[in-house]
Amino acid sequence: MTYNELTTVDFGYQKLLQLLQDGEKFDFSRYGDGEFSCIDNRRNRPMNSDFHRYFPSLAEALLKVLKESNLKDSMNYFIGLQTLAYRQKSEFISNLAKEYDIRFFKSNFIHTVNMKRGLQEYWDVLNTRKVIVVGASHLRAVNKYFKYDKFIEVPLQDAWLAKDKIAEQIEPFTHDEDNVISYSCGMMKCVLIDQFKGLCTQLDNGSIFDPWCGMNTRSYHFEMDAGKGNQPSEYFKLKGK
Fold this sequence. Notes:
There is one protein chain. The chain has 10 helices and 9 strands. It is an alpha/beta fold. The protein has one domain. The strands form 2 sheets. A 7-stranded parallel β-sheet has the order 3-2-1-7-6-4-5. The chain has a two-stranded parallel sheet with strand order 8-9.
């Protein structure tokens, strides 16, 4: 299957902003090369570029979310597919999609907007909502761009090992359907979003906030004005950046 054949769900930046502006409850998560490498045993390294290891239990949980994704069509529940993941594992992903009737949206839009014009529109709409941020310690600095109500810190490495503890901290905020939970916590965010689906709005923001918070964790961050002069992640230090 081609990338376009796999990504038929209508979800993009303007829809993301509109749903937030309208106060409509929804969930979106994104599967990239890390998530699919974790699920697929045919991989070259034991961890992703953020040094979160590919635990068998995490692989099982990530696959379970995808297997059951076609049951969530009426729930405002969206799952994205990144192009890098497709380029690396097109056959593997296509076979999964056929077997379990998985439908994705094109999830690269959020990286593209971040790189080309920044996230001011996103900041503006998030400032109208009550936001709980789940992420590594450096992301506390995102408070400069939108005012979060609560910050739940996750480990920089192997966050999956702390999943149950993190879920316990998130759970009280899911009781208010007007809350917005923003995840930037590695591969386990897909599992957490699925665990609390339909209770409040949940956003998979991944690494998009990193360059705005002084840390470049993806190659494109070095090309952004916001990323100039930032501390590179350990991954890029190892690559000689």
